Amino acid sequence: MENAIELAGLRKVYRGQGGGDDKIALEGLDLSIPAGSIFGLLGPNGAGKSTTINIMAGLVNKTAGNVRIWGFDQDENPRMSRASIGVVPQELNVDPFFTPRAALEVQAGLYGVPRSERRTDQILEKVGLLDKAEAYARTLSGGMRRRLLVAKALVHAPQVLVLDEPTAGVDIELRLMLWDYVRELNEAGTTIILTTHYLEEAEAMCDRIGIISAGKLVECDETSNLLKRLDAKSLVVTTEGQGVPALPEGVNGTRREDGALVLSYRKSAHSAMDLLDHLRNQGVVIQDMATEEPHLEDVFREITKAA
């Protein structure tokens, strides 16, 4: 299958109550997510990310448009459409009186998974909760509850897994464990959709990224191509002296707290070698140097500002 998710003309309007104004959450969103990819769905707060996810999961009714999940049209075959997707919500909504094992068994039953095909203990082991299988959810830490939500989303072996801010407020150990497991699932064929405010995570994990702003898709491309969009680069130089020497026009120089000289420039106008030659001609003694490319955060800021 070429695309795991296909959204066409997706529109969502929340009607104003008590005579209030209507709120347009999504305005004609067109988006295709390739099967087998790790796709980052990014955007500022209120851009429409959660609305998009909830519509795909069948939790929110769309106003207009078409949704296909793993080839199943949401209107024509809602049961198979929902069975093809698993969602890990941002909120830690777990039943405090269920144990992790019981919670997964109930979830599997809701999806009609036969007992002989259930992988409850296998999933609990993968998310590091097997030793807590019979502990009440109310006794679990926040990180363990986050793991439980991941486990619940996987009981029916969905072809598409959506992670909505999965590492918000979790420790480093859980974050690394989660990303290792996500990569393992992806290598096994699961399509991953990730929303996060930690853009360094999206840059490291996602092979393709879509950016939503004000309910519209403003950019969608491979991560490597997005990072090439900015005509910016930095040269970080360790020197003997302090201060900022005279620099060519269009080059900005600053000193970091560690004393390194940072030269910011446009790649189309200057090269690192030319700047190094310029510094030597100024009598600057260079001890070490490195270059820094733009990060996804810089690209995100530029795209959303323009939108």
Q: What is the CATH-assigned architecture of the largest domain?
A: 3-Layer(aba) Sandwich
The domain tally reads 2
Number of strands: 14
| Distance from first to last alpha carbon | 32 Å
Number of helices: 10
- Return the CATH class of the largest domain: Alpha Beta
Descriptive report:
- It is built from ten helices and 14 strands.
- By secondary structure, the protein is an alpha/beta fold.
- The chain has two domains: 3-227, P-loop containing nucleotide triphosphate hydrolases (Rossmann fold, 3-Layer(aba) Sandwich), CATH 3.40.50.300; 233-306, Alpha-Beta Plaits (2-Layer Sandwich).
- The strands form three sheets. It has a six-stranded mixed sheet with strand order 6-7-8-3-9-10, sandwiched between helices. A four-stranded antiparallel sheet has the order 2-1-4-5. Strands 12-13-11-14 form a four-stranded antiparallel sheet, covered by helices on one side.
- α3 (100-110) packs parallel to α5 (142-153).
- The protein is globular, with a radius of gyration of 24 Å.
- The two termini are 32 Å apart.
- 32% of the residues are buried.
- The model has no long low-confidence stretch (mean pLDDT 90).
- Keywords: ATP-binding, Nucleotide-binding, Transport.
